[in-house]
Automatic annotation (TrEMBL), chains A, B, C, D, E, F, G, H:
Ranges of residues in domain PurE: 88-220
Coiled-coil intervals, chain numbering: none
InterPro entries from the UniProt entry: P2CMN_synthase_LarB, PurE_dom
Full protein name: PurE domain-containing protein
Pfam families: AIRC (PF00731)
Gene Ontology terms: biological process: 'de novo' IMP biosynthetic process
GO molecular function: hydrolase activity
Length: 225, 225, 225, 225, 225, 225, 225, 225
């Protein structure tokens, strides 16, 4: 078997969708991750490509193979190549400390896909004044990503405060009847806040791709960069 | 079979627990409901007894058999005998219009079990200012009951605003991934607001019994009655 | 009880989110639906308000109370007041004939929320050439809504063909292991197409709100109107 | 990143609810737990704060950082600062030996939140005489917490014996069809004993917060302290 | 198609297992039920055969076709032919009034399968004294059947009181988290009382067959007949 | 805490039910298991007591503390004290090799509870001739235990061949849609063979207690001992 | 809207797959069914087309619109146009009487798709001799379809008797833990008989399409026609 | 216990079904796997037998005991004895890299069972052009196996492109709402492509047995061998 024949990269995705393919690290060996990231980079040297869901061994393998790669250990991801200039901005809001890795993956995905990203952490619903305190930040974003576990109520509160397009990411944080993210997933799907859309449990990547697409389309250059 | 032999009423419950037995109407014929309510009343003429989960036919049968009965059609319940003087007060808060019958059952149960009850309806989380507007009412109650369907996020927001003992009632309002109350049930069980306790889906009666027990124990006579 | 006291309309939602409140017909009487729609219209006479999830009786009640209302029987909805000028355009694609009502609700919601909507029906995955045949339409939209039941695979195929922001709506069409939309819901949540976001089963309204928000933000006036 | 910026403690919770924030140890590093507990203690030196769900490493980290901390290894928790004087008393009853850690967490939570707590262990329903033997203890409590796994039937038996407000905690003890606490959770939610309220699986903390709030409100100083 | 060709009766079952085949009425037309019962009776005129799960139309059809048939409307069953002399006795205990039809089916099945059956109804766990009051009856039986819905805790309490072989039948009585018998089923499967065996939800027939087999094997002629 | 105060043994169970209490090893330390087994033995020196669900460490601890104990490593159990003389006989049949430990636990439980036990392994349904080959053994037993994982079809085939009381034990053997025993559990509960009763997944102990109670009652001394 | 614009028939399917499109009647009006069947027939007059999942009204509408149509009321289907000459033969085996409609749909689908079909009904596993009695018929088929509800064990027994390709169809027959076909579905998916493949609950059509494709490929002209 | 008495091999299966028994490695020790494979080989020296679901230790044990064995580490399987000459050909298509082991098990099973197998990997639906690019290969096969995780949409797309008998294998690849293969399983069961049949999650073996049986029956000698 020739090297890398275990995967057929979809180099054409950039042409079809405007977004490059990603290396999804789950279930791949560190060596495979490093090699595939290199192949993606070779195909698209002019813009950033990245790999997600990396454990420490995979991150180390990427660092070893690609000294120019930028490692994001909290987000469990690595980027190779120059980030695109951001168009539009995405605000990522989290319900608790433990939602950090998913929020980090979302924010990094947004940046790789061409928009600006900012994270405001630990805005739990049990202290609703904290949510109310970020109304201006919500209103100023082109797209909002809400990351929350347990009952996921943050999506409903945020969704009721703003008309900015909002994506909810349930996380697997919690125990017992949280059923590894199911409670948050069902809660976000049945949210009483109109227009809330949802991605898979812990899928910061998916939320980031959608949010970046929305933000990029506003055509507003982000003033912060 | 002698009349009424299909049910062995637990007349001793009042002695054991301080609360009278209730006629649970689900699965009983209108005639059975009316007769059982009469038997409960005969055993405890000095204080109110009641029947819950009554359809229109059962309510009519009760009205026909017991002209003195007080009918609560929205709450689908009927009361017979004098209500006890209320001790302590319970506030019932609902997320939406459709939660009304469950909230009504809860409030009536509270009153029958010896506490004062007040209902504030339609305080949805998607308009969080409505919740903030009732902070004084929450603080003034001896026990709070939160009734909400869909994602049930109201329990988390209320639970974060007050230290009053709070009981959450998920309702079967919603569709699709609400799974007939399951989303709200899981959401309330995993609420990030500490101390939230939960009863079965649509179980206004159970929430009312617990809340009345809590409120009665405060020993404060309700100033409103 | 004064008329309409069973519901506290959130007239302020327009100010907070840019979108008017909707009358959600499920669990409301025809008279309630008609009255609430009238109250919404009185509060916002300058722009369309609407009611969803209406059965025939509710549609008739609306028609009787509001001769100016526009009825959409397939979409089970009614609109009152002038539709806003559309900004941006949304394409609604369905997998099968039976997905029509949900697609209709989505399209109408888009129009009420200020964007243009077009429906292309019956583009099932089992005949993938039909999906390939609408690539230009997909590319030309500002947001795409994919409505599909059974296994919901249409979302993955469409999501792989275009980089336009895409919202997937699982429907309850199917039997057996479709589990009233659960198979489609899980399939869309785990779609291999990056950036697919999902709403509740049969929730055309929610998809429409999100899609309209995205489309409006593009600032492109729709050439077709 | 400045130290501790990964978490925004809700110091105001004490003012809103009368209860201090807790450090929830799950998913936090030992160092984070120790530091956050120290910050809570610094904000509220006059009354006990605590941390729950600690593994041995976290308990050791707390012990190292805070020699004054009181460690509860069975309850997997640690307390820092003087316990408040107890008002009212809570009885914690368990179905089996393996429910001990959850019962310990509940009892400790009760004490930190200002009420007296007593645990009676191993009162399984399969030997119902053991339950009947503690009727006096049940009657003398201001609130009862029932901790049980497997089928959770203890909640129904206790709930039928007393009118004291009762909170049921399902535990994940069991195997097979216990589904990690689901059987006990469903059983407690559908208990035939009126007024039973339930918290999440293994959530001794939540039951303790609610029970302490109820017990404190009785205003009876506990004679045992 | 010749009459009755839609079903191949297993006339040999009596030889293999000692028990006659039953007509399971669910999904059969009244005419089919009546005809099949007649065919069974013709094949085994010397001993009773019967049909279960009959609605009113099926019961009427049986009465019309077989005037000698004994109808049991509560148990939704019909018997044709002489009952066998009973060997051994089975006690059927129910948790509530609504469990009556399932208990009736179980008791009738026991009798048709050759043992004596007695029903004690409405022995709910929430009044545990009622269970304790029947200890002698439990001890005197050759097999016990416990029929209960909601949380099904009665099986655990009875199972802890007696060493008589005990079969638990969960019923679909309840609402919400009872999930049409699932809560009772899981509770009975995970009962802490050793030796509890379980049948399908509402399956009084299956419990009756097993119990009769156990009771018949004791070889004790029932003194009551 | 005095030694052993973590568990209140139910020494009276023998008097109530005729069966001694068992040490359920799951969740107990090896030292606890050894001590509790010793206490049970001290209370009932005249007859065997035993401990189940033991891992290697617990088995070693028992061996160290009680040299007279009989260890059953496949069944993961240990017995202390003289086995009672067997009355009646139980046949344990398994579907596959991997069901061995559960079958072993069942057989050992039967012997400790006073009946004879024999195991016939690996009688899978996919080779139905193997089942037919043991018809005589089935007919000669006083009670049959069927242990099977995956789809659990063995219970239906055995149940159709014999009228001997039969207990089905689903095991967690399998993968994917076996859902750790759920497929076998549901299959056995809905078996088309009349009179099949079921215990919890992997619960060889429960099946053994029931089967021994049934077999003992036949009063036939087992000729093989 | 022009007539029939609610559905885009996939006339090209015959070219791609060798099989004509079918009219799936669920969720379509009788008039739509009749019209669509006519359009299919017009496009393929030389070979049979058909419609499935028809209620009585749809069957009547088809009969009225297409006097040449062949109605199959048990199978709830209708055929229009000449059946193709059969190549190869399929044997359909059912577990019980109530599986008849699904078996009928499967058999009719086989014939419409170009193979011979024969049904042997009521071969339940609880009487395994009935299965053994059809070994020759199994061996003589080119493909076998097993239709069974409840626990679905028939698939395992048949699958162990023959090496002929076998398709299992779980049906929704049963109650309680059958969960509308889920028990049979899981049982068939985890069958210990190698090579068993499964279709959706009650999906006789899907099984028929697959079986016909397999049978046709054998190239053996069926001697019975 | 004599060596190997823990398993009764079904040597007769070859006679009944034309296929040899397999050693299913899950839950067996390496030594057991090696010995059982040897016994199978001794019984059928003239044709290949094999073992599946082997971890590295089991593969090493097989290699040590049977130097002639052919090891397939990706497919986690080992073959002993000469492969039969292939009749007919099976095409195995996978959705992603991580589906490789299941696809390998399927392909190897096909070859051991007497047909030719070819694998085309990584034909994900999100790049539908990759599926369209293998239409000729699909058309040329005698049976197709589709292996896919996540939402499993590949089965629907392939099923719509070809009339070759197609077996779908859901894999446990994915996270969150993939629920370890459940999403793919439900999606494949409800596929809109007619005639799709499904096996258990990750069951490459079962798909291979069925596909080989179908391919062998075509009677076409494969030109490639």
């Amino acid at each position: 078997m020739e090297p890398g024949s275990y995967a057929h990269l979809d180099h054409d995705r950039l042409g079809r969708t405007g977004d490059p393919e990603v290396v999804f690290g789950l279930g791949k060996t560190p060596a495979q991750v490093a090699e595939l990231l290199g192949r993606l980079h070779a195909a698209h040297p002019e813009r950033a490509v990245f790999a997600t869901r990396l454990d420490d061994a995979a991150l180390d393998a990427v660092a070893g193979a690609h000294p120019a790669a930028e490692l994001h250990r909290t987000a469990r991801a690595a980027v190779l190549g120059p980030l695109p200039a951001p168009h539009g901005s995405v605000l990522v809001v989290t319900g608790g400390t433990a939602d950090g890795p998913v929020a980090g993956e979302a924010a990094l995905t947004v940046r790789v896909h061409g928009a600006h990203a900012r994270v405001i952490a630990d805005v739990g619903v049990a202290g609703v004044h904290r949510v109310l305190g970020i109304r201006d930040e919500l209103a100023g974003a082109d797209c909002v990503i809400v990351v929350a576990g347990m009952e996921g109520a943050l999506a409903s509160v945020v969704g009721g405060l703003t008309g900015v397009p909002t994506v909810a990411v349930p996380t697997s944080i919690g125990y017992g009847a949280a059923f590894e993210g199911l409670a948050a997933l069902l809660g976000m799907l049945t949210s009483c806040a109109p227009g809330t859309v949802v991605v898979n449990i812990d899928n910061g990547y998916g939320a980031g791709v959608h949010a970046a697409r929305v933000a990029r389309r506003t055509g507003r250059d982000d003033p912060r960069t």
